[in-house]
Amino acid sequence: MYDPLTLTQIVERHVLRNNSRKYYRFRVDRWYGGIVTGDVIGCNLRCKFCWSWRFSWNYNIKGEYLDPYQAFRKLDSLAKKTGIRQIRLSGGEPTIGFNHLVKLIDLVVSEGYHFVLETNGILLGLSKDYAKKLGKFSGSSIEIRVSIKGTSPEEFTMLTNAKPEYWYIQIKSLINLIEAGLKPGDEVYAAVMLSFSDEKGLRRIKRVLAAIDKSLEENIDKEYVILYKHVIELLKKTGLKPRIAFKPNNIPKEMI
User: Fold this and answer.
1) Are β-strands 142-148 and 64-66 bridged in parallel, bridged antiparallel, or unpaired?
2) 106 - beta bridge partners?
3) Helices 98-110/68-82 angle, 10° precision
4) What is the pLDDT of residue 90?
5) 238/156 Cα distance (integer angstroms)
6) 94 contacts 39 by C-beta, under 8 angstroms
7) 4-255 placed in CATH 3.20.20.70
8) Distances from the Cα of 29 to the Cαs of 97, 156, 207, in angstroms?
């Protein structure tokens, strides 16, 4: 069992150089109806079902360090070529290197793009100051998708092998972001990994979210494992067996 904050500090030493962040690719993807994506290296969780575990777990792999302006130029170029008006960071945990992230968001929304922040929420739950800095973007075309790992602290540890108290910190990130001025259910919402949960677990997480704001319960993004070849490989290594999972060519439309 590990401490995600300690892991954050270790990862930072490998993926940050001043205000430059380590990236491994830029691409266009089908999620959110089409989105330009920058994939970063390094994460502060070790989810046993992670689709990008080769890059999020291993921070020493080949990549390039880019400052926010350099990263934006690559994202902007792809967006202009494709006509897509949405941009995100993915692959690893984007809030590692927070100053880089905030400047990049500022550049993205200033040019009229919509920015999607996919995060596990750990650092946003630990720091109200981080949440406040993101709250300044409320009303400027941003959405923050906090990916909650399971419906309880016990599930969180089963899925990540991290200390169970960090599940509550993920939940706290939603509170911090709402208190910072982001609109619940719209600008900030919860994506909950449900592949390893039952109906009792779903009811439990709904109660937790409803206690924060009813719109969080009403706008859960239900997340399920997608059985890419490398994900199947990881599941075999970790011994996890999802109750519900989907093949890449059979993903429900509501998940895309």
Assistant:
1) unpaired
2) none
3) 40
4) 94
5) 14
6) no
7) yes
8) 23, 28, 33
Give the pLDDT of residue 5.
Answer: 97
Ranges in the chain, pLDDT < 70 = none
Tokens, residue 83: 């006509």
Confirm if 142 and 177 have CB atoms less than 8 A apart.
no
Cβ-based neighbours of 99, under 8 Å, separated by 6 or more: 19
Find out whether 108 and 72 touch, Cβ atoms under 8 Å.
Answer: yes
- At position 160, the amino acid (one-letter code) is T
Per residue in 77-89, pLDDT (tens digit) is 999 999 999 999 9
Is 26 exposed, middle or buried, given 0-12, 13-18 or 19+ CB atoms closer than 10 A?
middle
- pLDDT at position 83 is 97
Burial class, 202, CB count within 10 angstroms (exposed 0-12 / middle 13-18 / buried 19+): middle
CA distances from 248 to 116, 193, 226 (A): 22, 17, 6
pLDDT of amino acid 197: 96
| Alpha helix stretches (DSSP H) within the chain | 4-15, 53-56, 68-82, 98-110, 122-126, 128-135, 153-160, 165-179, 199-212, 214-218, 229-238
**Distance separating alpha carbons of residues 108 and 116, to the nearest angstrom:** 10
Q: What is the DSSP letter of 49?
A: T
